[in-house]
Design a protein that fits this description.
With 206 residues, the protein is an alpha/beta fold. The chain is built from ten helices and nine strands. It has two domains: 3-84, no CATH class; 93-202, no CATH class.
């Protein structure tokens, strides 16, 4: 079944007005099991992709290529239409964290740390209007992103459920407060990296 036939099948299913159950797949094999179980559609999302491909939570760390590649693999494996989560943006702080590599440079006895676009590294300085960004600016963005992530309801609830396996009576409010208390940790980690004598970061952005 080609893409046009998939679209027609999906449109026909939606036009019935019935609730359409779309179990979540995380790879080609799980999608085939969904199809074999008789479901008319399957779903592939960012959490399933992050967990199965990277072993990480869904905190915006995936790139567009990651999502497209996994969705294409799942869609090609089955004969039913596949819903794909396209996320809500890319090239954020989480993407930056994933791609950093350590390096450093010194001039006249001073250490300089900054982020360099991979476009500049591969194609030269004239290929990208943004050549270098001071490391402090990037690190501040990462810290802000981490603070926001640990305030997201799904992260709080997930941490709470996990903590209750060790202490069944633990209230959700305590877990939320504990996650908020991590904020100073990110700042201290960032300051520690600034004091290191051999750290300069280079990364890619779009």
């Amino acid at each position: 079944m080609n893409a046009q036939q998939h679209r027609r099948t999906l449109r026909a299913a939606l036009d019935t007005g019935d609730t359409l159950v779309a179990p979540g797949a995380y790879d080609a094999v799980s999608a085939k099991l969904i199809e074999r179980a008789g479901f008319p559609v399957a779903y592939i999302g960012s959490y399933a992709t992050a967990a199965s491909e990277l072993g990480l939570p869904d905190v915006g760390i995936l790139t567009r290529d990651d999502l497209v590649r996994r969705a294409a693999t799942v869609a090609a494996a089955v004969g039913v239409p596949v819903f794909a989560d396209a996320e809500n943006g890319f090239a954020n702080a989480a993407n930056i964290w994933r791609t950093v590599e350590a390096s450093h440079t010194r001039r006249r006895g001073r250490l300089y740390r900054y982020y360099v676009s991979q476009t500049v590294l591969k194609q030269g300085a004239e290929a990208c209007p943004v050549r270098r960004v001071p490391a402090g600016q990037i690190e501040a963005a990462v810290v802000d992103q981490l603070s926001a992530v640990f305030r997201q309801p799904e992260i709080v609830v997930g941490a709470w459920h996990q903590a209750r396996t060790q202490e069944a009576t633990l209230p959700e409010a305590e877990v939320r407060l504990a996650l908020q208390r991590l904020d100073p940790l990110w700042t201290r980690c960032s300051r520690r990296s600034r004091r290191a004598s051999c750290i300069c970061w280079s990364t890619a952005w779009t």
